Amino acid sequence: MNINSLKYFITLAEQLHFGRAADMLYISQSTLSYHINELENELGIKLFTRNNRKVLLSSTGAAILPLAKKIVEESSDLQKLAAEANRKTPDVAKLNLCFDACFERFDLLGIPAAISKLRKENPGIDISISLTGFDDLISGTASMKYDIGIGILKPKEKTSQLLNVLPLFDDQFAIVYYPSEPDHASPDEVLSGAKVYLIDEDERWTETITNALVSNDISREPILLKNFSDILTHVVLGEGVTIMPKTQAEIEALTRPGMHVLALDYPDFNMRICAFWAKDNYNYAITQLLSEIEINPAISDILW
Predict the structure, then answer these.
(1) CATH number for the segment(s) 3-88
(2) What pLDDT, in 10s, does the model give residues 58-99?
(3) Do domains 3-88 and 94-170+270-303 have the same CATH topology?
(4) Which of 62, 89, 90, 185 could be cross-linked to 189 through a Cys-Cys bond (beta carbons 3.0 to 4.6 Å apart)?
């Protein structure tokens, strides 16, 4: 059954005259008669009673007429919706990714492999990558400046209602330190009297960590340094500790013998890495990329 056959049926039911109905449909009477007969055969019913002088709608035809009209109307709505979506769809040859600058190891999410596969399946695609602060990432993704934003949410933190949110994995903060001798110290014991080094320019998370320390009765004024490598130098030399995402810390520990990573099991120190994209962004490369993201199997034991 096709929509045109239903349109022919509706028009003839309204006109009850093959000549007038055919003229309105811009087809011949023989074509109209053929399609009506085909529809009747397909449905196994008689839609009209007719003779040489008049055409009447059968009782069965009258019963299905409202449904036929509804189907045709919904078909028209679907065509309009498809045309509107096609009009809104950005150039799928471009995909703009933006990463939260406070997290340095998004490669652990399997994103490079997903991008590589997307490029292989779409040879002409232009993928651009940006790093920015969280607020710009959210506003830029909502305004479709970025197609996908990948960043970190704090506990109970909400984002713009204009965005879809896909959680990728949950992480938590951990203390990173070099003990003078192997120990099984608690977070309170490690932090007691220790200098805490944090990134100077990462105000969002520095403030979060400082407030969380205070709220958990671990009051400590951090020492702020410009970059992560300087912080690790101080930590490696036993001059203090730092607090960073546990996943990232575990990876760093793989190449730094003696480094201890102690998870902070407090609600305030939890985080969720998520992908964001605008609800009105119809670039299908978005879901194509996100569906390919898999946690790197080499570090899955560390993550979970």
Answers:
(1) 1.10.10.10
(2) 999 999 999 999 998 888 888 777 777 666 555 557 899 999
(3) no
(4) 185
